[in-house]
């Protein structure tokens, strides 16, 4: 699809830029004391600012299409909202309820952004490649002591520390939007840059998701096993070369991926998971919303069962099973379009992370579902979205 300046296209692009690239720029500028933290953590502000553009692009793109996955997603959000409202008025811990209220806003906004954004527009893809490259190089060059995240001790306010999870998510989404559609030479240049940037940021989940994306994209783009393995070898040496020039100290957080059993955060998460399973056994139908201390939630999909009960958990699982099987079936039949690959990468990555590392409020979930619905509408309703 050629680059165009339609109102619908520009609205979707503006919403995307306000959420992802602007977040990386803001967080980086705050961390290095270039600007004050006048917009808080930014994501809530970005969600509000992007909402009008995203909603316009969404309704212009989807028409009257009925998509079961979208219906399930809105049902899940309705259940989440009702439970949070009940928790608010029943005296649940405000340190859990208040962030959940903000998450509902962000999830709605990110879904509309992802569904309304023209992932398949070649002009947007090219410009996002340059933007992604700029951010990656800045992260690599500005990193010190093996990390892009400034130490707590060097900051006057602990809140000014960079949100590595949010930045990692933004870089990953930009990568999915920009890299798969590029030719092989551009991809071979961009992959190592993205991997090294995520390494310095310390976003382990997104780093692993990027590896999955790389394997899927290169397998999909290769016409024979030799080309696929050649791509893997090239990327490996590219990462080693960049690491030789820019990695002066080892990032302990990332190295701990190789020794999960000795990782303190993993040990803590196992404790949280056991407590969550106990809560589920004690409350098998409706769960027990906000029954855990702030931050002590299960870092996997069972967090939905704890907070939203069997119905919320079942809807989320069914949503992902439907979309995953549909996309894998199309992949096996030879589907390789740009929008298809975006939907495939986002759905598989978010599902994988929900199963092993993230709770149900993970913001890649609405992005993945939005991209899938856009692909579905584009393929089966042929509206040229």
UniProtKB/TrEMBL annotation:
<feature type="transmembrane region" description="Helical">
    <location>
        <begin position="40"/>
        <end position="59"/>
    </location>
</feature>
<feature type="transmembrane region" description="Helical">
    <location>
        <begin position="131"/>
        <end position="150"/>
    </location>
</feature>
<feature type="transmembrane region" description="Helical">
    <location>
        <begin position="228"/>
        <end position="247"/>
    </location>
</feature>
<keyword id="KW-1133">Transmembrane helix</keyword>
<keyword id="KW-0472">Membrane</keyword>
<feature type="transmembrane region" description="Helical">
    <location>
        <begin position="189"/>
        <end position="216"/>
    </location>
</feature>
<keyword id="KW-0812">Transmembrane</keyword>
<protein>
    <recommendedName>
        <fullName>O-antigen ligase like membrane protein</fullName>
    </recommendedName>
</protein>
<feature type="transmembrane region" description="Helical">
    <location>
        <begin position="338"/>
        <end position="356"/>
    </location>
</feature>
<feature type="transmembrane region" description="Helical">
    <location>
        <begin position="308"/>
        <end position="332"/>
    </location>
</feature>
<feature type="transmembrane region" description="Helical">
    <location>
        <begin position="101"/>
        <end position="119"/>
    </location>
</feature>
<feature type="transmembrane region" description="Helical">
    <location>
        <begin position="162"/>
        <end position="182"/>
    </location>
</feature>
<feature type="transmembrane region" description="Helical">
    <location>
        <begin position="363"/>
        <end position="381"/>
    </location>
</feature>
<feature type="transmembrane region" description="Helical">
    <location>
        <begin position="71"/>
        <end position="89"/>
    </location>
</feature>
């Amino acid at each position: 699809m050629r680059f165009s300046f339609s109102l619908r296209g520009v609205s979707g692009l503006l919403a995307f830029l306000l959420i992802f690239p602007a977040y990386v720029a803001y967080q980086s500028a705050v961390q290095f004391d270039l600007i004050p933290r006048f917009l808080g953590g930014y994501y809530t502000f970005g969600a509000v600012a992007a909402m009008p553009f995203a909603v316009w692009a969404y309704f212009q793109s989807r028409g009257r299409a009925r998509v079961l996955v979208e219906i399930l997603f809105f049902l899940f959000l309705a259940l989440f909202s009702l439970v949070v409202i009940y928790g608010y008025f029943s005296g649940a811990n405000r340190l859990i309820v208040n962030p959940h209220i903000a998450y509902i806003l962000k999830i709605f906004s990110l879904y509309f952004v992802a569904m309304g954004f023209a992932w398949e527009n070649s002009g947007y893809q090219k410009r996002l490649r340059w933007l992604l490259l700029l951010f990656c190089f800045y992260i690599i060059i500005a990193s010190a002591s093996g990390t892009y995240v400034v130490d707590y001790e060097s900051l006057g306010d602990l809140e000014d520390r960079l949100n590595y999870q949010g930045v990692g998510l933004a870089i990953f989404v930009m990568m999915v939007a920009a890299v798969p559609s590029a030719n092989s030479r551009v991809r071979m240049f961009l992959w190592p840059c993205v991997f090294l940037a995520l390494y310095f940021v310390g976003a382990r989940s997104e780093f692993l998701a990027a590896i999955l994306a790389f394997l899927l994209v290169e397998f999909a783009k290769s016409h024979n096993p030799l080309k696929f393995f050649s791509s893997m070898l090239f990327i490996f040496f590219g990462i080693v070369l960049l690491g030789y020039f820019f990695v002066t100290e080892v990032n302990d957080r990332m190295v701990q991926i190789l020794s999960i059993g000795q990782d303190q955060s993993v040990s803590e998460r196992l404790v949280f998971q056991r407590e969550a399973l106990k809560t589920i056994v004690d409350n098998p139908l409706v769960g027990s919303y906000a029954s855990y201390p702030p931050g002590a939630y299960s870092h996997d999909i069972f967090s939905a069962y704890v907070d939203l009960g069997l119905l919320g958990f079942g809807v989320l699982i069914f949503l992902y099973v439907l979309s995953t099987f549909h996309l894998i079936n199309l992949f096996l039949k030879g589907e390789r379009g740009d929008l298809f690959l975006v939907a495939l990468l986002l759905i598989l990555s978010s599902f994988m992370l929900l199963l092993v590392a993230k709770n149900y409020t993970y913001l890649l979930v609405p992005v993945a579902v939005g991209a899938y619905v856009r692909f579905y509408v584009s393929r089966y309703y042929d509206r040229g979205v």
